[in-house]
Amino acid sequence: MHFGLSDDQIFFQDNVKKFLEDNAPLDIIKEISNSDDSIIKSDLHKGIVNLGINNILIPEENGGLGLDLLFATAVAQSLGEGIATLPFTGSYVMAPISIRYGANDKQKNLYLDAMSKNTINFGIGFSEFFGSRDESNIVFSKNTVTGKTYFVIDTDYASHIMLSDSKGQIGIVSLESCGIEMTDLITIDKTRIFKEMSFKNTDIDILEKTIKSSESISNAIDAGRIVTAADSLGASKAMLDKAVEYSKERKQFNRVIGSFQAVKHMCAEMASELEPCYSLVWHAAHSFDNNEENKKLMACHAKSHVSDVSKMISKKATEVHGGMGFTDLLGLHFWFKRIGLNRHLLGSPEIVREEAALAQNL
To answer: Which string of b and e fits 42-81 if b means at least 16 CB within 10 Å?
Structure first.
């Protein structure tokens, strides 16, 4: 039995990949990362939205495509492979899932309709629920929020921020509200933006169903972890492909380095470790919508395992390139740093494996 992406999913994935190849080659990525060119980024964002990626997980009755997480996962692979400087995991995956599972009917129609028209975009600040710091303390009280949260993702074009407290309640804050302060977080990954945000008696719309249940945020984080794993999967594929290509061109002692046994072994090890990750991530995404019992466990497995494999591939692919691998000329560091940050985004492998153990009552 063949388990893989459907023709429609591959078509969607290939369209995103081709768009990035045509409009965001490495030179453009370098320009954006060095100057944060908002005009180029804005044009890229408009182009990728025109492909429909903002509507993948929004139900048809709200103007979306009504597709499942496996479609979003397929797209995430292409975004990682193309080191896209665009929001996706938070804005177009975690946000609609949070609303679908946690909002009442009025809230669903309000936010999902606006998201499908791209008049509302969300940044996501859920670290208080799964990895809060001592200085942070998001508190919801009487439809206001006070406190600080770190690593708010996908704020690039956000009009609203989706926040969580330690209990798993989810609330939505308009960035036009009073009492908000935002600070850029400097990370190794220059392809994406992260913020530190603080709130003081800021108005918040709490998703009704999340007051009594943490199901919504749990599902959103599971989906985010699967999509993040897919992003690292795409980035790993790009680094492996570049290592193999380089080994066929670079010569030492009048021989291409790909003919040396040590280099062959490195490339073979990367390929053999990466190949099973595809089915793992795809199965995790399929389980999210079709296997309620195991979806938490599969999300944890996918995120933790791909994090470790992609870390190994980023290291060995750089080694295959020798000294050139560390230069800005080849740009390998963009994929290397993206993989490194993805490893810790939405929970490090250690945190995620502990959650997997708890899910199995171990």
So the answer is: eebbeebbeebbbbbbbbeebebbebbbbbbbbbbbbbbb
Domain range 7-115, CATH architecture: Orthogonal Bundle (1.10)
Query: Which amino acid, 204?
Result: I
pTM of the model as a whole: 0.94
Domain ranges in the chain are 7-115, 120-211, 215-359
In order along its 362 residues, the chain shows pLDDT tens digits of: 566 788 999 999 999 999 999 999 999 998 888 876 578 888 899 999 999 999 999 999 999 999 999 999 999 999 999 999 999 999 999 999 999 999 999 999 999 999 999 999 999 999 888 776 666 688 998 899 999 998 899 998 999 999 999 899 999 999 999 999 999 888 888 889 899 999 999 999 999 999 988 899 999 999 999 999 999 999 999 999 999 998 888 878 888 887 788 889 999 999 999 999 999 999 999 999 999 889 999 999 999 999 999 999 999 999 998 878 778 888 899 999 999 999 999 999 999 999 999 888 87
CATH class of 120-211: mainly beta
Q: Is the fold of 7-115 the same as that of 215-359?
A: no
Highest CATH level, class, for 215-359: mainly alpha
Count the neighbouring beta carbons within 10 Å of the beta carbon of residue 322: 12
Look at residues 52, 70, 40 and name the one whose alpha carbon lies nearest to residue 117: 52
